[in-house]
Amino acid sequence: MTNKPKYTIPSPSEMLTAGLHFGHLKRRWHPKMAPFIHIQQNGIHIFDLYKTHDLLLKSCDFAYELAKGGKKIVFVGTKLQTQDILDSEAKRCGAMYITKRWLGGTFTNFAEVKANRDRLKKLKKDQEAGLLTKYTKKERLLIAREVNKLRGYHEGTLLMDELPGAIFVVDAKREKTAVKEAIECGVPVIALIDSNTNPSGVKYPIPGNDDAIKAITIVVKAIADAVEVGYGEYAKASSKNKVQI
User: Fold this and answer.
1) Are residues 103 and 194 both part of a single domain?
2) How many CB atoms lie within 10 A of CB 79?
3) What percentage of the chain has pLDDT greater than the value 70?
4) Least CB-packed of 41, 83, 158, 190 within 10 Å?
């Protein structure tokens, strides 16, 4: 008998309390979200939280298996109310993250974007080693500005030396460029998707409110918990293999 993963999924009742059930006004909906809608109330679509629960569980299980196998996962969400929770939860569970801006070509022009990440790693290493003292004050100022700019784009993905195992997106409509690039490059997409969004191409959709911070938080924490457990098991297995060798 296999052991169940040691992470928990919020119940439909907890999702209700967090406001995950609220969609957008009917006039703003995307028809392909119809299978996930329970009712319309006062002109607003209400999600079927039992379906949301099942799909969140499926998404968490997938994220767990990826992490357990040592695959990298990138959390993506650039709107203001998602940045802090994605930053903190990605760091907690060991995932990578993009919360400032998705650079066009992050996946589809991978080599060029990776060169910028490598440039940032080198500059940071030189700063820490005190190797920039040979430059003039003006040159050091320009380098510092370059580092700050590159950090905004690449700080959360410095370890991305190859395409990740998946991306986890909050608000697939806003992050449509990230979703499109991932699909083009064969990277599976896990995404919190509101009623105004086309879910086509998203392998692991999580239908729900992607605007309210409590709703976003309950989903992000669930995915992060699954990733954290997966990476923990990967680390144990790696350590055991080293001892045996």
Assistant:
1) yes
2) 15
3) 96
4) 41
